[in-house]
């Protein structure tokens, strides 16, 4: 019985911040908050993907490229380009969705402001124009969704710009790392025949001189 009594109060405690948010900015501000959660969730997912998935996949790609027997033929270069493009396409896969969410945020805020202003004008048409305080309160509540949408859009735009720079830089550095890895692997190969030290060469020359019979 106490659990049954506590569950509605717990539900009311959870929903009370949402109800206050809806009351302060309208239902569209909840939509903006959900879009912001999705946007920041995708940003966090890309950070984890970079650390846990992309870096090991990049190391495996470099290892497979170095393990090839030849690296300068047309088929080898085409195969390298296909593998790098596939790796980078997986890295930038959520980028169109991030841009879409960034564009939706200010539009949703503007829609919330328009609907709020319509509600304010309807209230003024019913109650008259003598309540300036109520009108100012309604206008302030109507502009809150636009403020929230623009704030989320600015933060999302900063992340999208930074993410595009990271992808472009990774595209440039990946080809450099593949070429440098091949050069390092070639320079690390031991020569097939080591040069003999000077002492051994001198001993060999002495022995060859002593083994030759003297002329009569």
Automatic annotation (TrEMBL):
<keyword id="KW-0653">Protein transport</keyword>
<keyword id="KW-0812">Transmembrane</keyword>
<keyword id="KW-1133">Transmembrane helix</keyword>
<dbReference type="InterPro" id="IPR050790">
    <property type="entry name" value="ExbB/TolQ_transport"/>
</dbReference>
<feature type="compositionally biased region" description="Polar residues">
    <location>
        <begin position="205"/>
        <end position="216"/>
    </location>
</feature>
<keyword id="KW-1003">Cell membrane</keyword>
<keyword id="KW-0813">Transport</keyword>
<feature type="transmembrane region" description="Helical">
    <location>
        <begin position="138"/>
        <end position="160"/>
    </location>
</feature>
<keyword id="KW-0472">Membrane</keyword>
<dbReference type="Pfam" id="PF01618">
    <property type="entry name" value="MotA_ExbB"/>
</dbReference>
<dbReference type="InterPro" id="IPR002898">
    <property type="entry name" value="MotA_ExbB_proton_chnl"/>
</dbReference>
<protein>
    <submittedName>
        <fullName>MotA/TolQ/ExbB proton channel family protein</fullName>
    </submittedName>
</protein>
<comment type="similarity">
    <text>Belongs to the exbB/tolQ family.</text>
</comment>
<feature type="region of interest" description="Disordered">
    <location>
        <begin position="179"/>
        <end position="216"/>
    </location>
</feature>
<feature type="transmembrane region" description="Helical">
    <location>
        <begin position="97"/>
        <end position="118"/>
    </location>
</feature>
<dbReference type="GO" id="GO:0005886">
    <property type="term" value="C:plasma membrane"/>
</dbReference>
<feature type="domain" description="MotA/TolQ/ExbB proton channel">
    <location>
        <begin position="85"/>
        <end position="174"/>
    </location>
</feature>
<dbReference type="GO" id="GO:0017038">
    <property type="term" value="P:protein import"/>
</dbReference>
<feature type="transmembrane region" description="Helical">
    <location>
        <begin position="25"/>
        <end position="44"/>
    </location>
</feature>
